[in-house]
């Protein structure tokens, strides 16, 4: 009987410790001052090669296709400091957006990035800070179809990249999106 209670006690301590560490990691992510929120752990790391309709290849990108760059952004764990291979470069308007997932849960603040072509019925005219849009992108659960507010907008070259997370794990393929400002030459 005592062994069973001791085993149960150890199990509960391990379980509580794991929950505590997960909560601390999420809080540390949110405290970085970046767009990372607790929901970004659910962000789709690898994506399809499929591109939004109407997206145009960059005429003169800073980083050419198949070149390498170091990622300075920390949109997701293991991204910052990783060496990326450029698999796509496109000229468009990029947006940081805030929205409440269609699946419920906490609002996502300052999500980076969605592009003009990731917005429903966007047309060619860029949106401005404070405007409301509907997301067609599905980078994260509950993103597609969500109403979002534009936090930041900029016309620039956006990149799709492959990289191996600095935290280990499977290679990330076709990550959408990083800006030239978030990349440096190796």
From TrEMBL:
InterPro entries the UniProt entry points to: DUF1541
Nucleotide-binding in keyword set: no
Organism this protein belongs to: Paenibacillus bovis
Identification of the protein by name: DUF1541 domain-containing protein
Domain of life where this protein originates: Bacteria
Record keywords, A-Z: Plasmid, Signal
Signal peptide: 1-22
Lineage per the UniProt record: Bacteria, Bacillati, Bacillota, Bacilli, Bacillales
Pfam families: DUF1541
Domain DUF1541 per the UniProt entry, residue ranges: 67-116, 129-179
């Amino acid at each position: 009987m005592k062994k069973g209670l001791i085993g149960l006690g150890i199990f509960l301590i391990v379980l509580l410790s794991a929950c505590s560490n997960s909560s601390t990691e999420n809080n540390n992510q949110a405290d970085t001052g970046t767009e990372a929120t607790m929901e970004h752990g659910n962000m789709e790391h690898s994506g399809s090669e499929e591109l939004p309709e109407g997206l145009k290849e960059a005429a003169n990108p800073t980083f050419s296709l198949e070149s390498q760059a170091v990622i300075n952004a920390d949109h997701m764990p293991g991204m910052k400091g990783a060496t990326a291979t450029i698999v796509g470069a496109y000229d468009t308007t990029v947006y940081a957006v805030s929205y409440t997932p269609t699946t419920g849960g906490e609002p996502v603040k300052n999500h980076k990035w969605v592009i003009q072509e990731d917005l429903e019925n966007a047309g060619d005219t860029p949106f401005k800070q404070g405007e409301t849009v509907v997301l067609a992108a599905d980078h994260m659960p509950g993103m597609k179809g969500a109403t979002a507010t534009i936090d930041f907008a900029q016309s620039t070259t956006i990149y799709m990249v492959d990289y191996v997370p600095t935290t280990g794990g499977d290679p990330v393929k076709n990550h959408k999106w990083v800006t030239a400002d978030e990349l440096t030459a190796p």
